């Protein structure tokens, strides 16, 4: 399971938790402007916007889990098993395989709205990258500083929804999560009034009682509500440090510690990495399950301008700073 989020302070920050039982070869990958991006049914993009994100690289191709482009457009794939539907190859002239969406849309779109429009127009192509890399059942979070969208490839067509909450998790389809929020409309960061029986003396016995009933488990529906609540009530300074720190705190509220979520195969779902990307600068901050210190990769002009993929293996070693007196 995964959780994706958008937060605007002075700049706009986007990112996600990637929760999975096994690694998928993930590393930070920059696709520079002049790296030729080839597609099965679309012309090769010889030049395009540079992209930074987390990807595995197969056959010199960036298979992104999420990324941001130079215009500050973000796109993340999140698991959508049992609902994601990719039509078989019907010989369309123009189509995009699911693993081509992030490179193509981030390579070409200057706004999230434009990317969402393209999602509606370009048919999907249910063809795997390689026979040994089966198609991942996904839905997508698309965002920039102006707004967010959710795109869900369903059996009866691709659905694109505006996302005023700025949060996405996994199943069920997006309309469920919006309706489900209604059940939590009474929750508040402030202390609750005694609506039960004002004639009874029921003083709060601690802080945080306005959110009693906020679901604490790791199911997608509960993570959705919890991250929506924490994001809505988020308070931090507008500085880069305060915003980035706050973004990771928000992701931490829905992160999976090893042992809490066991898959049917008897493996542990854990938050392998959490990331936060400043859409204005393209700086990619991340932490991993074992290294909770932040590591950052800058999208410098020199890195944008190249023609070869740049790979940054994850720094997974925790270094503890020992204080001397
Ligand atoms: C597993 C990731 C989604 C996170 C998530 O929701 N996990 C839930 C796991 S579980 O249901 O709870 O078991 C997804 C997001 C993007 C996916 C990757 C991207 O789509 C890019 C390629 C696509 C290839 O078809 C498969 C490998 C892959 C590299 C994908 C591996 C994996 O499916 C990723 C990393």
Automatic annotation (TrEMBL):
This is choloylglycine hydrolase. It comes from Flavonifractor hominis. It catalyses: taurodeoxycholate + H2O = deoxycholate + taurine; cholate + taurine = taurocholate + H2O. Belongs to the peptidase C59 family. It comes from the Bacteria. Keywords: Hydrolase, Lipid metabolism. It is an enzyme of class 3 (hydrolase). Pathway: Lipid metabolism; bile acid biosynthesis. Residues 2-302 form the Choloylglycine hydrolase/NAAA C-terminal domain. InterPro entries: CBAH, CBAH/NAAA_C, Ntn_hydrolases_N, Peptidase_C59. GO terms for molecular function: choloylglycine hydrolase activity. The keyword Cytoplasm does not apply. Its EC number is 3.5.1.24. The gene is bsh. It holds the Pfam family CBAH.
């Amino acid at each position: 399971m995964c959780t994706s989020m958008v937060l605007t302070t002075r700049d706009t920050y986007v990112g996600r938790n990637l929760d999975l039982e096994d690694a998928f070869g993930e590393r930070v990958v920059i696709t520079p402007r002049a790296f030729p991006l080839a597609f099965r049914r679309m012309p090769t993009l010889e030049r395009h916007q540079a992209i930074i994100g987390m990807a595995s690289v197969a056959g010199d191709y960036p298979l992104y889990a999420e990324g941001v482009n130079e215009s500050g457009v973000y796109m993340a794939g999140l698991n959508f098993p049992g609902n994601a539907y990719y039509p078989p190859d019907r010989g369309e002239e123009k189509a995009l395989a699911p693993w081509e969406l992030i490179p193509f849309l981030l390579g070409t779109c200057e706004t999230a709205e434009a990317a969402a429009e393209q999602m509606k127009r370009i048919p999907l192509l249910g063809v795997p990258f390689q026979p040994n890399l089966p198609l991942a059942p996904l839905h997508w979070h698309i965002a920039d500083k102006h707004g967010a969208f959710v795109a869900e490839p369903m059996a009866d067509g691709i659905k694109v929804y505006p996302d005023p909450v700025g949060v996405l998790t996994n199943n069920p389809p997006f309309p469920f999560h919006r309706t489900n929020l209604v059940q939590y409309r009474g929750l508040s960061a402030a202390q609750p009034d005694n609506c039960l029986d004002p004639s009874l003396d029921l003083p709060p016995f601690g802080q945080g009682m306005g959110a009693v009933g906020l679901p604490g488990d790791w199911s997608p529906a509960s993570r959705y509500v919890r991250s929506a609540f924490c994001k809505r009530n988020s308070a931090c300074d507008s500085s880069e440090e305060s915003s980035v720190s706050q973004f990771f705190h928000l992701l931490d509220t829905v992160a999976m510690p090893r042992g809490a979520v066991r898959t049917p195969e008897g493996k542990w779902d854990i938050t392998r990495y959490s990331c936060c990307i400043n859409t204005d600068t393209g700086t990619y901050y991340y932490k991993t399950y074992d290294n909770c210190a932040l590591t950052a990769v800058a999208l410098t002009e020199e890195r944008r301008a190249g023609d070869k993929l740049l790979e940054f293996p994850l720094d997974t070693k925790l270094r503890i700073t020992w204080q001397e007196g």
